[in-house]
Amino acid sequence: MTRPYKPMRGAGPPASLCPQGLLAVACAFNLACGETPPPPPSPPPAALDWCPHVTPGTRGTAPAAVALSEAHALLRFFSPGRGSRAIDSVLATAMEGSTVDWDGVAQAHADEFQSACIHEPRDATSLFPVQVERHDTVALIRPGVGEPILPEGTRAVAIDLRGLPDVPELEAALTRAIALSSNTPAPRVSARVRVHTGPTNELYALSFYSNTTQRLNEPAYPASGTEALPVALLTDGRLPPAAARFVADLRATRRAWLWGDALATAVAESRWVPVARKGLSIRISQLEDDAGPLPDRIPADGALPIPLSEGLRELPTLGTPPPLDRSAEVLREKMTPRAFVSGPGTHRAPTAGIARAALVIVHGAVRRFFPYFPVVGDGIDARLEETLASVDEAPVNALRTVQLLRRFGAVLQDGHVFVEATPSPFIGTIPVLMEEVANGDVVVRRSLFPEFRPGDTLVRVDHRSAVEWYAEELTRTSAATQGYRHELATRRLRELSGPRSLALRGPDGHERTVEGRPWTGGDFSEALGSAPSRRPGGWLSDLGAPSLYYVNMNRDSGMDLNAYVQHIQTASDARGLVVDMRHYPDFLAHVPVQHLIQDDFASPILRVMRWTGPDQHDVKEDQHVFTGGAEPSFRGPIALLVGPRTVSRAEHFATMLVGAHRVRVVGRRSAGTNGDITHLVLPGNFRFAFTGMEVLYPDRSTFHGVGIVPDEEIVPTTEDLALDRDPELLKAIELLQAAE
To answer: Can you give the residue ranges of every domain in the chain?
Structure first.
């Protein structure tokens, strides 16, 4: 039985019509001359429909959304065939409507993809106790619970695989049956699987993460018998995947004969995933040996003997089964590396289906690849159900979809969670830098608009108090530390999707309302800056510390590696050095550190989860040791300034200095977020970023959510910002002068 051939969309007219192009000219000529036009090309042969040959598993207990996430992730990350964007598009279309028909979504996957089949679950069942029957000198084993015992004088074994349930214990029961029949381990065929070293970055080709395929060699079936007995496998039209894999292993390696029905090899490559009232069987591997993929169909060597007892008598006299016939073309989808599709996806107007699909896709990806569940807890299942329910509460547009994805991401407590859309739902950004001060207020530090004045305190946002606005925004803001969470929420405050009025209270206590409007003068990042201080590097004579030197490492200070080396050269005779890393640098971390540490020093520990197929995972771990003392070198005392905007690469830099006990740290706790970022490209051209790498301190202690903890905690006040006073820098000067 085969699935009907479905021509690709746009593949040409039906057979009753003339072809296009040059062939159309010939067609018209032949028709005019009364001749029959040439027939169109025959469609390619269809792959074997393996779906009727699967014994499905039982109904699941997970919520439908969570179960669908697992099924979709298996297709997206581990199945043969098409890439993620095509798979995601099917999900988005299937999830349209006022409510979700979970069985209909599962059906859509089965209709679209050769590597998925839909089934009704079987009733919950279990293996019966193992049964062994004697038929003359042949032992007929019905695999089950317990150890089989061969009758004395057994000269051959038949293993009855008919009607076995798809249960976790089945593979062990089958292993016991073949072990008893062998005196040497029985080899197995290999399985080619997808290998993910971290979560592939779907937006940028250059990434720490990668995916490929690998031929995975399974350990041989063990042997516990005294001799290698002839073996026959008895089958019917349906098998659970474990039994089908057992047949493929033993028949392909010529260890057993196959009597009964042919094997659809795809069944042996699949896994059962229950979804709602139905379930999907999904191919997750490709069985192959040195000659290539196994045939789509492994024919039986003979029919089941009738009566069985009579037919089994010849088994002891049979030799080794013949090799498999490899002449037929392998038509099932191949497990080949998926080409990277650069850049953003295709824009579609946001719909409920797109929003729902995006949430399911993100859930499935972070379930597999997010490394910090042991630190932040695992609440993503409940958050998926919550956000899916929220889709139905109001009409969906780009902004709501972004907010729903941000709400889901907040449960990860990951400062690398960013959600973007093309086109953006925002019309622009207010060019004002605000931050939280000691009493919890949000205060203007600097602005490119004169109506926002340093020291102004935010009182209201539109018709809500600032406290109420932040209370809501923080519920959909993901971060590992509270200071960085507040900073990220403040960035959202500056983004405009429409008119916004802001009530400000000046240092004199008077309130006024200003209109938030987007900057129209081009890129304002250089003019405004993002770091707390825009002070250039140099001596600190103006602050009463002429023997101390200051280096601003933040990217908006214009610092690059060459300029940094020049500053260290100038500062080599200073009595102390202040290194300001309260924002983000533009260069790799270890190179500047080599000029500040004289001894060898270690990097943070970087750990990436590697999945070899959907079940086998380990961790790829890296830590580098660098040589210090690079010239020019600073050997005096150092004060390091950090704060909530010290994130990722900036924290990498700081971690090495702290790990080497080289600095006194002044300021506020850093973001506690390090590790290579990755992006998911979602339907509708939404993008979801998160951290795919676990980072530890060099001594293996936890970094995520801890960050760089100051030795001296200093939080600016409203007065500090109004007067452009830098209390963190002043405290650093105090510490260094005390050390002179």
So the answer is: 428-528, 538-739
